[in-house]
Amino acid sequence: VGKPNVGKSSILNSLLSYERAIISDEAGTTRDSIEEALKIGTHLVRIIDTAGIRKNAGKIEQIGISYSLRAIEEADVILAVFDASQEADEQDNEILELLKNSQKKIFYVLNKCDLGVKFSAPVGAIQICAKQGTDEIVNSLKTYLDAQETSEILLNSARQISCCEAASEAIKRALNLLAQSELELFAYELNTAIEQISSITKPFERSEILDEMFSNFCLGK
Length: 221
Description:
The protein has helices at residues 8-16, 59-74, 90-100, 135-148, 158-179, 183-198, 206-214; strands at 34-40, 43-49, 77-83, 105-111, 126-127. With 221 residues, the protein is α/β, with parallel strands linked by helices.
């Protein structure tokens, strides 16, 4: 997260190693959240590039900003990106204040450090220069995620818990239908379960999963 034009989309592209987000000098280029799966060590995470947060935004951009604020609430880890070459302005300070009240793990990232550092960042902030890339971000995330490993999956929001409960109920219905050889209804319930799980992990190609499962069925007439 961060205000427009601090380099959030550039960091996303660097982490993914391909051009996923459009990059432009024009503020407000990213108006909707972009979600992608990213492998950090042994961890598969879902990374979200959010619209820049600012006050004077148009109606469409304001919708994107509302998605950004919701992403902050639902995220487990937040990468807060700031332009190191500029002193903190009112919008930066408001974002810092917003994050200060958050209970989430926050990594403060100073981007564009090769242009000089004028931004007064919190202690321990990650500094990014054009030549260095995002290795330090990846290493910091890996260290944090490795330390969080447990034998149980932790669900950190009511939405995640609700999605898992809905997926569990759909799987139960699917198993009952499978026992009755109601394959069309079984596929429907399985599809529902996949949708619920993918909303808190990474998007799945549902048709591929269903094709793989049904390839092992032998139906008699």
